[in-house]
Design goal:
By secondary structure, the protein is of the alpha+beta class. It has helices at 8-18, 46-52, 81-97, 115-121, 173-198, 203-285, 343-346, 369-384; strands at residues 25-29, 38-43, 58-65, 68-75, 103-107, 289-296, 304-311, 314-318, 328-331, 336-341, 351-356, 361-365. It has a 7-stranded antiparallel beta sheet with strand order 9-8-7-6-12-11-10. A hairpin with a 2-residue loop joins strand 3 and strand 4. It is rod-shaped, with a radius of gyration of 55 Å. It starts with 7 loop residues before the first helix and ends with a helix.
């Protein structure tokens, strides 16, 4: 998980420390953010001043002691486990920014950051309190010299010539001794080198830190995978719920549409029956359909209540039932193109629209559903009457 180290004040403080300026420490923190790290403070008072600026959160500090540098990762005991894991991962990025300090120290309390501990980890206490150096051989008292010996004569007397004798091969004892000495020397060298390697003061802390970092990275990956899995499950659940709602709405729409068609078919049959009754009544009695209705003529914004009388192909509109002279008439024979409900168009109950073939449309509404159906049946009768 990456972090943001773009705060220019960090590089400025780092350059002051490594260049030998009076500044010898700085502290980095998150300022209540998740991944953005910025400079908290810096100073010239060394470790003691640095410790007074620590707070109960995740902090990173860079410190110069003499000619060596230490990177401190301070994670308070009050910090949650996930932020601890994230701190170990982000610590690698801070370490890369600070160009690999001499030592990296993790701590959770101020007491762990004592001057003695820091200097010991940085290797600045080596040689203190040790045994004095061993005097060199040149400073030892001189050993007594041996008495002088007369040199042997340079030319030995001639020896009598000896006859050559056969040489008897002997076992190469000097080779065995040399091999044995070599083996002993190798064992001694191995014994001297191996403890030095195993006792390296840097190998164990670096290995433990690497294990901590790997564990932190693994924990962050697991948390990320868990969040990703939860997000995928949430999206799938939301998708399923949305599809279920869409299916339900589609089913309701289909049911409403089917109900509307059934009602239209039922109304059509009823209107046809009414139309036939009206035609038969008018033929036998000579009286047409009449009643009150409210009309909005084609192109007019006003509604007007009128008393209507339907005879043959004509509809006459009166001011009221006592008038003898109609205010207007409408001849319908074969001119009606469509008659349909208009309750949704004009938001008035028991309303309907009559469309004529010349593009005229007239709106009507009755006082109740029964009067509306009778009026529609009357319009149908007038349209078909000879």
């Amino acid at each position: 998980m990456s972090c943001d180290l773009t705060d220019p004040a960090i590089q400025e403080a780092y350059q002051e420390i490594v260049s030998g300026a009076p500044t010898n420490w700085f502290i980095l923190g998150y300022h209540d953010t998740r991944d953005k790290i910025s400079l908290y403070s810096k100073g010239t008072g060394g470790l003691e001043e640095l410790k007074t600026n620590l707070s109960e959160e995740v902090l990173y500090a860079f410190l110069r002691v003499e000619d060596k540098y230490a990177l401190l990762t301070y994670v308070s005991e009050q910090v949650s486990g996930l932020r601890r894991a994230r701190a170990l991962v982000h610590g690698k990025a801070v370490s890369a920014l600070c160009k690999q300090p001499h030592v990296q120290i993790n701590s959770s309390t101020v007491a762990e950051l004592s001057d003695e501990n820091i200097r010991t980890r940085m290797g600045l206490n080596e040689g203190a309190g040790g045994s004095p150096p061993t005097p060199e051989a040149s400073n030892s008292p001189a050993a007594p010299s041996s008495p002088a010996v007369d040199p042997a004569p340079t030319t030995p007397p001639p020896a009598p010539a000896a006859e050559p004798r056969p040489v008897t091969p002997t076992s190469p004892t000097y080779d065995d001794n040399a091999a044995q000495n070599a083996n002993n020397m190798n064992s001694a060298v191995s014994g001297m080198v191996s403890p030095a390697r195993s006792a390296s003061p840097l190998s164990t802390p670096r290995t433990e830190r690497q294990m901590e970092i790997e564990a932190a990275e693994r924990k962050v990956r697991e948390e990320t995978e868990r969040q990703k899995t939860a997000e995928i499950a949430k999206r799938q659940r939301e998708t399923q719920e949305r599809e279920a709602r869409e299916r339900e709405m589609q089913a309701q729409k289909q049911a409403t549409e089917q109900e509307r068609r059934q009602k239209e078919e039922s109304d059509k049959v009823a209107r046809e029956a009414m139309k036939k009754q009206l035609m038969e009544m008018e033929r036998l009695r000579g009286a047409g359909l009449s009643g009150y209705i409210t009309i909005q003529g084609s192109g007019s914004p006003y509604w007007k209540r009128r008393f209507y009388v339907m005879r043959g192909q004509n509809i006459a509109f009166f001011r009221d039932e006592n008038d003898r002279q109609p205010l207007s008439e409408m001849k319908l024979g074969g001119r009606v193109v469509n008659i349909e409900d208009a309750s949704l168009d004009c938001l008035i109950p028991h309303s309907f629209r009559v469309d004529l073939y010349m593009g005229e449309s007239h709106l009507f509404f009755s006082d109740n559903a029964k009067d509306k159906e009778l009026a529609i049946a009357g319009f149908m009768k007038c349209n078909e009457s000879a």
